[in-house]
Amino acid sequence: xxxxxxxxxxxxxxxxxxxxxxxxxxxxxxxxxxxxxxxxxxxxxxxxxxxxxxxxxxxxxxxxxxxxxxxxxxxxxxxxxxxxxxxxxxxxxxxxxxxxxxxxxxxxxxxxxxxxxxxxxxxxxxxxxxxxxxxxxxxxxxxxxxxxxxxxxxxxxxxxxxxxxxxxxxxxxxxxxxxxxxxxxxxxxxxxxxxxxxxxxxxxxxxxxxxxxxxxxxxxxxxxxxxxxxxxxxxxxxxxxxxxxxxxxxxxxxxxxxxxxxxxxxxxxxxxxxxxxxxxxxxxxxxxxxxxxxxxxxxxxxx
Length: 303
What we know:
Elements: H1 15-25, E1 34-36, E2 44-49, E3 53-58, H2 65-77, E4 88-92, E5 102-106, E6 111-112, H3 121-137, H4 161-170, H5 177-189, E7 197-199, E8 208-211, E9 214-218, E10 225-227, H6 235-238, H7 242-252, H8 256-277, H9 282-302
Antiparallel strand pairs: 1-2, 2-3, 3-5, 4-5, 6-8, 7-10, 8-9
Helix pairs in contact: 3-7, 4-5, 4-8, 5-8, 8-9
């Protein structure tokens, strides 16, 4: 998950700690400056290490399995993909009071994708679809099956059934819970029957980098794995709309049942975050409502 810039020190991690870890474990890089990145993720804290590297530290134990997973699989996936992905350079271990494994990666040039940085949004949507199709074509032999390490992305959304139904109950009177329940039920009924394929797990604007308005890199494979690719279609409602959504839908293909599960994934996330933000951040709450409305309308048209 990607968030905007957080103050240095979140989760007990700050630049001084990273500097000490690098000095102790990778003394060849100890003279390099360490600075927080402009846009950081929630699962990890990321720092620039000099001009050509980053240090990436999990913020909690649940995110630690991604270190070994990405270290092993990113170099295998990279040749199959049409844009850059992170390049693991070294893996650090616990130390200096920090309890987890962590990683050093090559720096990827680009800006976080946002509507104001993309001139041709339908063309960008087609590029994202092309990345997903290439990822799905990559050899899945021996890849990590969807599970706790992917926070159950790539598995059935049924894992989050209780949480979704609690959210629907909490939001009664705030959203159309009858229609939303129908979308969720349809997602659970549309079971995955295809062969397992690679999925990213968090295809969102914050994990897409652009250069000159075009897709240049995809980052943060922490929730990746092998299973059902429906979770990777959620961007159809979170970032795309109108012409760009139709361009994405046409380019990425996928069977109707996969789209039904994708609507379930999008609805689940929008519901649980709306519950969190209902009495707080009005701007964020409005965005969650927009996604819910778009998903419900899409189900009405195509479900």
